[in-house]
Design brief:
The protein is an all-alpha fold. The chain has helices at residues 2-22, 30-43, 47-84, 88-120, 122-130, 153-157. The chain has one domain (46-162). Helix 3 runs antiparallel to helix 4 (88-120). It is built from six helices and no strands.
Length: 162
Amino acid sequence: MKKWTVFLVMLMAVSTVWAQNMGSMPGMQPEKQAQQDVICEKLDLTSEQIEQLQDLRLQHKKEVIPYQSDLRIKRIELQEMLAKGESEKNLVKKNNEINEIKAKLSDSRLKHELKVREIVGTENYKILRSHGDCHCLGAGPCHSFEKRPIYRYKEYRHGIKK
């Protein structure tokens, strides 16, 4: 009897984990792809505009990678400093370095958004912003950068609140 109970509990646990991961598997959300296709059709962009957006997105990704890695390193260094009992002055200095990187990331995101708006036009940009995701165009997530800055993406995506 115990074996069957353990087996059923394990089966339920595995099926729950599997069901939770279904939404994150590539190709498992056809309705999202259909929504993106509708957005792309609404915008009626030229192939040149689409290419510009895709190039812009790649350029932006390349630009923010060093900032993101520096930010992670500085956060780890801050945690190490806290654990070692560093002085408040040194901790504040390290925290200021972190805030400078965050500001650079935020500025980069804003510049990216402005370039997207310039490429697609004001009316199309409003359409993009009214939908949650613009990856079909290479424009990236169309969330307000104040609500979901790029350096906090992983934390929001995984439900971690600070």
